[in-house]
Amino acid sequence: MFDTLSTGSTATAPRAAQPAPDGPDITPILPRQAKTVRDTGLEPRFVTDLVLKAIQVAGKAQLAVLAGKLRLSISVLREVLNPLIAEQQVEVAWCGESDIDMQYQLTGIGQRGAADALARCRYVGPAPVTLASYRAVVERQALRHADTERATPAQLAALLGEDGLAPAVRDVLGAALHARRSLLLHGPSGSGKTQLARKLGRLLPGPIAVPYAVVVGRQVIRLYDPALHLTPAVVRQQEERRSCDARWAVCQRPLVHVGAELGREMLDLRYDVEEGLYHAPPHLQANNGMLVIDDVGRQRIPAAELLNRFIAPLDAGADQLTLQGGQVESLPFDCAMVFATNLEPAALFDDAALRRIGYKAGIGPWPAGIYRAQLRRQCRLRRIDFDEAAADHLIDRLHAQSGRALLACYPGELLDRIADFAGFAGSEPRLTVATVEQAWNSMFIACGTEA
Predict the structure, then answer these.
(1) DSSP code per residue over 181-230
(2) How far is C-alpha 127 from the geometric centre of its chain's CA atoms?
(3) Among 16-30, 172-186, 203-217, 226-240, whose mean pLDDT is lowest?
(4) Residue 446's pLDDT is what?
(5) Which neighbouring-strand residues pair with 290?
(6) Buried b (16+ CB within 10 A) or exposed e, 57-91
(7) Contact at 8 Å (CB) between 301 and 255?
């Protein structure tokens, strides 16, 4: 992780990130499949309840469909179903050519058993993994390990080649990624800090294993979110998937982004009465990935308190979270942390707090040449012909006379407005002095472009 406190260097040289050309092999990533209930690590009663609830929801459940829904192996399900059939809680509703085609349904006794199971826990979904198993996998995938792949200068240059960053700033970003220490991006609004943080997240090595859910006692915490835990573009599968534990998903290292909406209540477990489970807070969903806290200083939490909220857990590799009834549990916490703000850092943090943040990088306005190149690139992406006279007018007149800095956000925003006006008029978007003026005047109340 980005260690916010440690200043020591690693003893062994890290490997450069070199993904396999045909994609990663999932077998070293995912735990092995559980063949028995004991292998799952879950209490037998919990697994039985989960099966009863799943059959009740489905009405009639085919064995293969049940295995897919609960992410359990056929052998585990048979170990659970056979006693339920003997106890007359479950019966075979239909049998196909093979036993895997069997459909099961609840008897009257089974329906009462399912009702009792729902009273104990309303959760119905993929079987969770144990907290111990989750801790072990997060530790194995931790970013802080000396032999974890690191981004190379060439990879960073390729990623940020068109961002107009000074070499000194790029070196700071590279050092922060290499050391896995926290990073503060500061600069004016619109300077590209958020986009830069997202790009840095793409340099984290992957993929990793993420459980759909974790069980703590009899409480279920959902961790997997398909919007955050993205499937790698290419996954090389050297061994059949059925040999791997389907309770885990193969994902890219997550990039979790929160902004001014972040409040204290979002940093703890949130119980969902309808689903009968807890939703993990953003920083746990970012485990083994990157957490970007944007707009620092504009949250409903003071900046110093927000920083302190993460310093100790990051250093310890665990966060203390509270369940209903006051039960406190320690969950693993390992992620790269990036803070971003358009406020003056000294106004947000005292010297002691700033020292706890590993690296600081100021992201400011672009030089005119870089700004012009970005405008040209954005035109190319939108298939709008670039016009030198219009670019000169934008830089030398509109920006210069208004005193507005050449920020990363402006080229794309202006071109989008040019396209909007053209779309409304039923014409093709064109970059001209007139269309730049029109777009500029629609963005700012006082543009300062009078002759």
Answers:
(1) --EEEE--TTSSHHHHHHHHHTTS---EEEESEEEETTEEEE---TTTSP
(2) 22
(3) 16-30
(4) 56
(5) 255, 336
(6) ebeebbbeebbebbbbbbebbebbbeebeeeebbe
(7) no
What are the two backbone dihedrals, phi and then psi, of residue 210, each rounded to the nearest 5 degrees? -130, 130
Cα separation, 17 vs 204, whole angstroms: 9
Query: Which amino acid is located at 144 in the chain?
Result: R
Exposed, middle or buried: residue 212 (CB in 10 Å: 0-12, 13-18, 19+)?
buried
Please list the residues that pair with 422 across neighbouring strands. Answer: none
Higher pLDDT, 3 or 225: 225
How many Cα atoms occupy the beta-carbon half-sphere of 240 within 13 Å?
2
**pTM of structure:** 0.84
Q: What is the largest CA-CA distance in the chain?
A: 91
Sign of CA dihedral 185, 350, 307, 144: positive
Residue 272: predicted pLDDT: 94
Measured between alpha carbons, how far is residue 335 from residues 48, 177, 332, 380, 382 in Å?
35, 12, 10, 36, 35
